[in-house]
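Annex B, item 7. Sequence and structure tokens for protein A, then protein B.
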Amino acid sequence: MSSRVCGRVLQRLQTAGSPPAASWSRIRAGSWGCCRVQTGTRSEPRRGLSGSGRSTMNVFNRDMKKRQKNWAATLQDGNQYDYLRDEVGGRVADRVYDIARTFPLALDVGAGKSHIAEHLSKDVVERLFLTDVSQETLKRRRQSEIPTQCVQADEEFLPFKENTFDLVLSSLSLHWINDLPGALRQIHQVLKPDGVFIGAMVGGETLYELRCSLQLAETEREGGFSPHVSPYTAVTDLGNLLGRAGFNMLTVDVDDVQVHYPGITEVMTDLQGMGESNCAWNRKSLLHRDTILAAAAIYNEMYGNEDGSIPATFEILYLIGWKPHESQAKPAKRGSATASFGDLSKINRPSPRET
């Protein structure tokens, strides 16, 4: 978006005035179709810093993330913010059903309210351990037919012995981990040989509309911008990270989920209600009112739909990796092939005798 267009959008906003702080109506299209009305305001969680990171990679304030998730779990209407986790949890469960076996013992890392287990049956997973950094979130876990046990634990420090679980799951929690390679190595360690890890995490293109709008507005109004959307892992890095952690037979695929909102305020409100507010150490704790209004206008101008709603894109990365075992299929040795790719072009050609 050029500076001339950006300036025209901001000028239009100034002449139109600010929108009233009235009730907002949520509109979601397609499979996300539902409607809710939110009235009034809600206080934001505290954004102070506490402690220092224990990992070499120290991008996120893990204590802040724990407080955010505890705060979101105590909301009386907190279930209305679970739509994304419910959807992704169901898609992770579908990948479990694709494996034709029963898992005697499974682990859900960063389980939250157990958004995966409610889609599974005890015929597939016989026992399940749930871990999360937030005790309040675990208290509000969903009911399922699988016998479960909750353990409050940081995803970066799993308190389990080596070769314990037949299956490890994770949905929408790994993107807040400072040392992702170390966390994947721990998951590999607690898996039994021939065990499988199935996870989903947020990718690098998530909320690009919000990120771009805030950066343009802040540059225009304040002469520079700060990171308001957390950094995410690129899909091109995941295969390498899984391989370095010791997994084989890797599968990585991408799924874009787009949700439609009335405005930028609803996008940020729902992220807060999900416990997905930014917790990076270099974040800017406050946004000026003028910057938010400018970002709202830019968002509508660049990405707005004809019906007045705006889209928010969540790039979901699904990853599957197996812990090596001698019974697994292995690739043939280099040079052991008995046919050449060069012969493929001769398959449909008639032989000399036929001519």
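Protein B:
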Amino acid sequence: MSEFCLTSAQDTVSFLMCVFSALEEWAGLGSIADYLSVLEYLLWVFTPLVIVFILPFLIVILIYLSILFLHVYKRKNQLREAYSNNLWDGARKTLATLWDGHGAIWHGYEIHGLEKIPDKGAALIVYYHGAIPVDYYYFLARVIIQKGRSCHSVADHFLFKIPGFKLLLEVFSVIHGPQEECVRALRSGHLLGISPGGVREALFSDETYPLLWGKRKGFAQVAIDAQVPVIPMFTQNVREGFRSLGTLRFFRWLYERFRLPAAPVYGGFPVKFRTFLGDPIPYDPNINAVELAEKVQLGVQSLIDSHQQIPGNILRALLERFPSKHKPQ
């Protein structure tokens, strides 16, 4: 009957009706009411199972929210003092506390070598750029909390074009990076963070952690002009937390042609993050920008070689969240 209907169909509508009838006949269901009846039955069967699995998950979320609240409460006196001095100081410290709590909960965030960041005075911090530099946000939060000072940051121009970002960028002293403005910030005694690889490194680097700095030396010239030390920085497993599809040819072409950072990023995995700060490279009037850029690149590469297993592995990075008798490198 179904075959005769399909072969004798005169138009698209009648053909689709025949297909629908054939599916009904194949499934053994006489009408749409039977479909609804089956769906209702499946919903009745699986709803209790869904609830059984969701409720424990909600309890875990509630526990983590409680831990985050305790992170904030632990610093309530610091926050009260910060707000009494300046509204934006209080806002910065509050957000830093929230980000620090998130890093501790989701990534077990650690920082090694924070004592190398000066308590006073300027320094240029040069870091490897992950697909999403969430590790740098955790670092900024830890500097605000433990060092009691903010760190200016250099970001790509496209961030300043995102609606709603302006206030956030202003409060956290983010600049788009003309050399003169960077030098001015350092000469004023501020810390300044910059990633020479920038968006290119974020999109096109991968789990082998290549540094994609090209021939960039502007950051080195900034350090020379401001006469400040340079501190290399790298975060272990940052590529396992978030990964980019920028290695696909289409997204590479899109960026090179239109400067559009449209490569999808995936992840958010709760892998272990450890930020390592290298020894400061002091100001030396006898070297030029090219030589200093090479020294800084070697410094960051040394941190990668010492603290990152190549290629990075998401499962291994997840397992590092669990306590081990073996100390990290």
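Comment on protein B: The first strand starts at residue 110 and ends at 112.
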